[in-house]
Known about the structure:
single chain; 410 residues; mainly beta; Porin; 14-stranded antiparallel beta barrel; disordered N terminus
Amino acid sequence: MVLAQGLGNSPYSAQGVGELYSPGNITNMGMGDVGISNSNPFYLNLQNPALLARRTRFTVFEVGLVGQSKTISQNISNDLKSQSNFAGNLGYLALSFPANSRWNISLSLKPYTYVNYNIQRVEAVPGTPYYAEYNYTGKGGLNKATFANGFRVTKNIYLGAEASFLFGNITNSSDARAIVSTSDIRVTHLNRANYSDIVAKVGAAWRPKLNDTWTLNFGATYDPKIRIKATQTDIYQKTSLSGQAIATPDTLRLNSNAQATLPQQMHFGASIERGNTLLFGVDVGFQKWSEYRTADNKAGNLVDAMTAAAGLEYTPKPTSNRYRDLITYRAGFQYNNLPYVAANGVQLRDINGSLGISVPLGAYYVNHVTLSIAAGQRGVLSGTQIKEQYVRFGLGFSLNDLWFRKSVID
């Protein structure tokens, strides 16, 4: 039986460092998370640091909120079991401002991964008439505080780099007991890993003009393979079924130093745009999760992953004074080969579609509120494979103003 709670509501968060949050913002979410080659002067680009240099003289502050409703289904002994849940979280806080006409800086804070699962398994003990009950739970996750820079090298070429402080903790626990009438003893193993280290990303973009109306966009980012510092604590404990301690906990290690390996990632994007009116883009990404190693330097039973996405953005008439002409509409599609492999050896897939809308607010309509929604499914009801169906919601606020500018008085 599978029970999971929290954002994502997924037993697959038990693997690796947990489920990854989308690297984009709420505007990208509405168009399939496409954002490696494309940017908009009214919004931040959190996916390719090079495109920060496309920002105008305005400073922008953004807040994103995410929520998700998910239903998990699994066939257990030819009986379909399902569970539904809803949860939400802060998606990101981000600030970007110009250092000069060619250089923009951004600061952001956002969750990177989350772990939240509760799995129970009952199995026969070989050679005996008894059964054993096993419970596995996990919670926690990692966060990223990022300092990014984007530079306009020439009229159409942009370069960028970011350094992020990755921090957080993940607690995994497992317990076992023999299901017999004379025993209520449960043996629990708790592992807690605290992570804190610096990770990096570089990006590039090229925007050649086809004519006075159309522009091509190309972009790429690279996250190198890196080992991150961790400390681990392992404790064994005997308890009763009510949770009362039966014996003194046995601490195998306390805050011992370790290192986990995060894999390299590469993302590429191409898009075509007509002014700020119409944009169509495609992104593809590759993540070498087979390179992942736990804090004990063990393989994480993950495989290489791939993401492909297409997205569309349309603003009827961005130079108009009519409000309805300034509303932006988005649509997107995403196909993912996830790093997870089911018990039958099949790699899981995630397929989803999305819609989004941004409405302008405030003086000169330079501020925006964005609503995006994505619906999809991963996994299928084959054997004991778990199927997840979800609807994800995003609400974003983008506030633009002339901050950090000295007032000039004649």
